[in-house]
Amino acid sequence: MNIEQVLDQIQPRRKITGIAAALLPFEENGTIAVEAFQNHLLRTHTTGLINAVNMDTGYVNYVSEQEQQQVLQWTREALPPHTKFVAGAYIEGLEGEVVSLYRRKIDQIVEYGGTPIIFQTARLHDQPSREKIRCYAEICRGFDEVLGFELSPVFAPNGEIFDDETMQGLMQIPELVGLKHSSLDRTTELKRLALRNEVRPEFRIYTGNDLAIDMIEYGSDYLLGLATFAPEKIR
Mean pLDDT for each consecutive 10-residue tract of the chain (235 residues)? Predict the structure, then answer.
């Protein structure tokens, strides 16, 4: 990709969808600070950002399944009725078949009115592209909308940067309407955007690059953990 191709992707004055991955606060005694969490969700909502819960800034890989469900309940209670929010579907460390585990998590998220985002699992890392695509298609089948998550393994061992064949296949799953991209690499994200524009223009790429929020100029939306610390400023 040369500089002319990069510059051609700039999209001035486009409307951006911003999502803030909420920090999950704890009291000094180790319990979740529920009131502070709910107040923060409402504060974020009033700035015009969409909340995302049970993400990495919400310690989804550390909190229990019961606590993850409580987070969904607290989120639903804190936000006005029918307010959209995103929630992580995380299965690492759970026993069972991959598709069934994800669908159970997604069912729970949808029950509370959330949009699920699929955290990757190391159990699919060694699978060929066609198998990954098949699994995601089965995971998403029948749901209104699901988001994907492409996470560099530098952040978590369950993360993976997909190859181009896998990414193109994922973009063609009807229920999968977007994907968070966290590679910390501008070139990789620009290639994702170029592929999106060719394969499925309405598919959203949510940058997770806290160090390059200007990716929104090139066609990315954003889903950032950094946004939770100052939602008024990020908005």
Answer: 68 86 96 97 96 96 96 98 97 96 98 98 97 98 98 94 97 98 90 95 92 83 89 78
CATH code for the structural domain at 17-234: 3.20.20.70
C-alpha closest to that of 51 among 118, 114, 97, 106: 114
Torsion of CA 91, 96, 99, 103, to 10 degrees: -60
Q: Would you tell me how many other CB atoms lie within 10 Å of the CB of residue 36?
A: 14
Q: Name, in order, each residue with C-beta under 8 angstroms of 119's C-beta and a sequence gap of 6 or more.
A: 60, 88, 89, 90, 91, 92, 149, 151, 158
Alpha-carbon gap, residue 173 to 167, rounded angstroms: 10
